[in-house]
Amino acid sequence: MRLCRFGPPGAERPGVALPDGSHLDVSGFGEDYGERFFGSDGIRRLTEWLGEHARSCPAVLPGERLGPCVMRPCKLVGVGRNYRAHAAEVGAEVPPEPILFMKAPSAVSGPYDDVLLPPGSTQTDWEVELAVVIGRVARHVAVAHAREHVAGYALFNDYSERSFQRERGGQWTKGKSADSFAPIGPYLVTDGVDPASVELWLAVNGVERQRAVTSQMIFDVPTLVAYVSEFMTLLPGDVIATGTPEGVGSGQKPPVFLQQGDLVEFGASGLGSARQRVAAWERL
Ligand code: ZN
């Protein structure tokens, strides 16, 4: 199943993508895609409900905004330097075990929303990634059982302000957490995805910057789920961003960073694509 959410920011409603590309409004099911839904076998329950009710669900209008494909998660865990070529381009060693960081859940946005340059930003960068959404509580799980704790996969961009990340003291959270820095979606795909063979790509203003397959990850998805669960309890609906391949702006020679008006397009095989304009942050 491909889950999506539609409607204005903060007031999204649950939907399902049909094979023909249209979207069905499944508000009638009565649950949004968050911790309670995933943690109570919601995907199976929704599938069953659709078997009876799909014909009476309204269509989502074509011009409707698609928001983040899951509700704001309790946790958004990032993985650093999980591709050899990316570690090399930023001048870092291949890590002996996964580097983890937290990204503020308030950074979550939709796949067609603007990316907002935070005030004072001079080095906002892109990072296309595969996101894993947790389906069952994961606490000290074994690698062999990790997949049982995954609800599905989604396209993600781990936008990062490099000067905030590297030059403002301490670790990476400051550079990872601005509003709009965590677009997820358009879809949470719950079946048929091999997380080791997803092709990721990203282009800025029509120039391709990133293209890689997730088989090139240093630590694969089951390893990451198990590893994160050693340090914190992963709750249903939590998101792990599994790291970006080479081709980020800070790895270009000379470095390239996002400017107001730029167009960022990115995608993942089987998970859909995203298209975002870069805009100046405005006080809300
Ligand atoms: Zn990243």
Name the shape in a single word. Answer: globular
Largest sheet: 5 strands, mixed
Order of helices and strands: EEEHHEHEEEEEEEHHEEEEHEEE
Strand content: 25-35%
* Largest beta sheet: strand ordering: 5-4-16-9-10
Q: How many structural domains in the coordinates?
A: 2
Q: List the uncertain runs.
A: none
Total count of helical runs of at least 4 residues: 6
The rounded distance between the terminal residues' Cα atoms is: 35 Å
Would you identify the CATH architecture of the largest domain?
A: Alpha-Beta Complex
Report the mean per-residue pLDDT as an integer. Answer: 96
From the helix content, strand content and strand pairing, which structural class follows?
A: alpha+beta
CATH homologous superfamily classification of the largest domain: Fumarylacetoacetase-like, C-terminal domain
What is the highest CATH level, the class of the largest domain? Alpha Beta
Rg is: 18 Å
- By CATH, the topology of the largest domain is Fumarylacetoacetate hydrolase, domain 2
**Total strand count, please?**
18
Helix content: 10-25%
Description of the structure:
With 284 residues, the protein is of the alpha+beta class. The chain has two domains: 2-56, no CATH class; 76-280, Alpha-Beta Complex (Fumarylacetoacetate hydrolase, domain 2), CATH 3.90.850. The protein contains six helices and 18 strands. The strands form five sheets. The protein has a five-stranded mixed beta sheet with strand order 5-4-16-9-10, with helices on one face. A hairpin with a 2-residue loop joins strand 14 and strand 15 (207-213). The longest helix has 12 residues, at 42-53. The protein is globular and about 55 Å long. The model has no long low-confidence stretch (mean pLDDT 96).
